[in-house]
């Protein structure tokens, strides 16, 4: 078992952005590679919505990670060169404190009493863990999708703590369409009779339906056209059966939904999608420090076919970054995988990331 855990904020509570306090926060994390003598080679990997701290295999017989093609000896994030750490986010369901954790005030799970979480809260927990581990500087923070949101938040909150930021397929703020999709998915879960106001004993089936809807934003219509036939799977299927599964794409979505409820939690899904909704690094109404203060070298990779965070959002974000004199390096890539390209397209992404890491190494104060 490579997952490690640490309990943070045992003396003083964490003051959340929602003005609620949390104490005794458990954090699950995994590390790869070795920290060098002057602790100048640490890279934080921030995971996406349904990810966890298990980024990649630690050995040949280990369980597969979600970024195996990108992490390891001789790969984009070279474990022979860098010390990598990935932390399950606050509000998650893979070992870190979340809505299923016990509330010390009631000795019962928080459930829907868990406080609203913001990206800044996640980053403060990550920063505290790094401090406890004796890491006083990060060479880089890299993340895709929700991980890109966290990476950007790092650049806003701790610009002097990091030498570089890599944002893959993530905007500077959610759009009304993003919030709309998240709202529909949350309402599916909340309206499920088996949700029981969060007191379910098995994952509510509508979590699978929410996942199906999400999958249609993660991939592209072109990929679906290429991968799935429109011929009925079985022309002899009864009417009742055909409502559930008649075409290839329906079988695919059913499989994705069923697989998802075996590994994720509905409450975490609610809280983490709301965090994505609330993220806004550009609005003048935000009380926290905005993107205008960022001076950290910033690699931004967007995907033209992304159907979740549309390319127009990313181009707008690039404009905002440049207008605020953020030292941004921007690339647009094309991929049939759409938003999920950040998880798959290692051959396209790796050279750009490697080039950026080499560039910031020359100017990193800790190198």
Map the helices and strands.
Elements: E1 4-8, E2 14-15, E3 21-22, E4 25-32, E5 42-46, E6 83-87, E7 102-103, E8 108-109, H1 119-132, E9 140-144, H2 146-157, E10 165-168, H3 176-190, H4 206-218, H5 221-227, H6 239-244, H7 248-260, H8 266-278, E11 298-303, H9 311-323, E12 328-333, H10 341-344, H11 346-363
Parallel strand pairs: 5-6, 5-9, 9-10, 10-11, 11-12
Antiparallel strand pairs: 1-4, 2-3, 4-6, 7-8
Describe the structure.
With 367 residues, this protein is an alpha/beta fold. It has two domains: 254 residues, Rossmann fold; 92 residues, Rna Polymerase Sigma Factor, Chain: A, CATH 1.10.1740. Helix content is 35%, strand content 14%. The protein has eleven helices and twelve strands. An eight-stranded mixed β-sheet has the order 1-4-6-5-9-10-11-12, with helices on both faces. The protein has a two-stranded antiparallel ribbon with strand order 2-3. Helix 3 runs antiparallel to helix 8. The protein starts with a strand and ends with a helix. Its EC number is 2.3.1.31. Pfam families: Abhydrolase_1 (PF00561). One of its GO terms (cellular component) is cytoplasm. Transfers an acetyl group from acetyl-CoA to L-homoserine, forming acetyl-L-homoserine.
């Amino acid at each position: 078992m490579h997952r490690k855990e640490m309990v943070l904020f045992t003396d003083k509570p964490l003051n959340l952005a929602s003005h609620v306090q949390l104490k005794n926060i458990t954090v699950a994390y995994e590390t790869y590679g070795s920290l060098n003598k002057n602790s100048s080679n640490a890279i934080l990997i921030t995971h996406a919505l349904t990810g966890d701290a298990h980024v990649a295999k630690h050995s040949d017989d280990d369980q597969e990670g979600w970024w195996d093609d990108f992490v390891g000896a001789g790969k984009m994030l070279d474990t022979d060169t860098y010390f990598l750490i990935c932390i399950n986010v606050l509000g998650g369901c893979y070992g870190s404190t979340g809505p299923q954790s016990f509330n010390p005030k009631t000795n019962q799970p928080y459930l829907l009493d868990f406080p609203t979480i913001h990206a800044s809260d996640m980053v403060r927990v990550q920063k505290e863990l790094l401090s406890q581990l004796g890491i006083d500087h990060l060479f880089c923070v890299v993340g895709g999708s929700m991980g890109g949101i966290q990476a950007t938040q790092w650049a806003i909150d701790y610009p002097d703590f990091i030498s570089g930021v890599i944002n893959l397929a993530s905007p500077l703020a959610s759009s009304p369409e993003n919030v709309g999709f998240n709202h529909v998915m949350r309402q599916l879960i909340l309206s499920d009779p088996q949700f029981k106001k969060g007191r379910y004993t098995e994952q509510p089936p509508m979590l699978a339906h929410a996942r199906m809807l999400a999958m249609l934003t993660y991939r592209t219509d072109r990929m679906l056209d290429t991968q799935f036939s429109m011929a009925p799977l079985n022309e002899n299927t009864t009417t009742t059966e055909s409502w559930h599964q008649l075409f290839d794409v329906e079988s695919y979505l059913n499989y994705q939904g069923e697989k998802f409820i075996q590994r994720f939690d509905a409450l975490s899904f609610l809280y983490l999608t709301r965090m994505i909704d609330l993220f806004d690094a550009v609005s003048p109404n935000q009380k926290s420090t905005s993107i205008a203060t960022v001076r950290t070298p910033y690699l931004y990779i967007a995907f033209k076919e992304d159907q979740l965070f549309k390319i127009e959002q990313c181009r707008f974000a690039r404009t905002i970054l440049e207008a605020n004199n953020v030292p941004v390096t921007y690339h647009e890539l094309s991929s049939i995988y759409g938003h999920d390209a950040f998880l798959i397209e290692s051959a396209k992404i790796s050279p750009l990331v490697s080039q950026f890491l080499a560039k910031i190494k020359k100017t990193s104060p800790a190198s």
